[in-house]
Amino acid sequence: MALAAVAGAINAGGFLAVGRYTSHMTGILSSAADDLALGDWALALAAGVILLTFLLGAATTALLVNWGERRRLACAYGVPLLLEAGLLLLFGLTGGVLDDHVAIRVPLALLLLAYLMGLQNAVVTKISHAEIRTTHMTGMITDLGIELGRFLYVNRREGLEPVKVRRAKVSLQLRLIGCFFGGGVAGALGFKHFGYVSTLPLAMFLLLLAAPVLGRDIRVRTRGRRLSRTSKRRQILENDESLHR
After folding, report:
1. Where is pLDDT greater, at 237 or 54?
2. In degrees, to the nearest 5, what angle opens at C-alpha 14 toward C-alphas 11 and 34?
3. Contact 24, 137 (CB under 8 A)
4. Concatenated DSSP letters of 138-201
5. Coil, strand, or helix at residue 84?
6. CA separation for the pair 189, 191 (Å, rounded)
7. 227-236 residue pLDDT tens
8. CB-CB contact of 16 with 191 (8 Å)
9. Which of 28, 11, 10, 55 is nearest to 206 (CA)?
10. Residue 65 near residue 123, CB atoms below 8 Å
């Protein structure tokens, strides 16, 4: 739910910054098709680059998570969030500086936001085993509609398993949609009144989400190194003692 709120804030605030939503690739792909059909090759190419950047963001998450899981790190899913927080800090600190250079600022902001959305969406996708997305609500609202259909269905035939609403799933979907919407309102208001620096609280929030498991891994690794050094010293002493004997 926290990541859904962050995604909503980045998506809505990012629209005010660059005039385009960067979380859902359906619209980007459709825009590329329209521009290609109309002969606007430059816009079609730009949409393709945004799509590729989103793809690279998702691939980065997969690389980082697999790297962390192979090393049995508790922060395997926190590492992409740390990267996202760092890029958001960069976006917030440099966006205002580039206000006078729109031709540079807008393309860079578009690519950065698309990369961030791919990065974060892949985190939640891997955590939930492709059950949940947080950067776009199309799937969530579709699933909610399916559950509404289950609720409206009248079970008449006996001997068959009745069609029931999965209440836990509905509750989760409503909370995710609500958090995305609430984050979107907060992000839009923040950018409207404060500009690019409104992304800094989002970056700090992501750092707070990832910090506990990162700290745990650091403590475990530090303790492991100390134990390893102690065992090595003990082994050396035992070997010296046996040689002396």
Report:
1. 54
2. 80
3. no
4. HHHHHHHHHHHHHHH-----TTSPPP---HHHHHHHHHHHHHHHHHHHHHHHHHHHHGGGGHHH
5. helix
6. 6
7. 566 565 666 5
8. yes
9. 10
10. yes
Say how far apart CA 94 and CA 134 lie, in whole Å: 26
In this prediction the pTM is 0.78
3-state DSSP assignment of residue 242: helix
Task: Give tens-digit pLDDT for 50-69.
Answer: 889 999 999 999 998 888 88
Contact in structure between 199 and 169 (CB atoms under 8 Å): no
CA angle in degrees (0–180, nearest 5) for 104-56-107: 10
DSSP per residue, 196-223: GGGHHHHHHHHHHHHHHHHHHHHHHHHH
| Single-letter code of the amino acid located at 212 | P
Q: What tokens were used for 153?
A: 């269905």
Q: Residue 64 is encoded by which pair of tokens? A: 């980082």
Per-residue tokens: 95: 């966006």
CA-only gyration radius of the chain, Å = 24
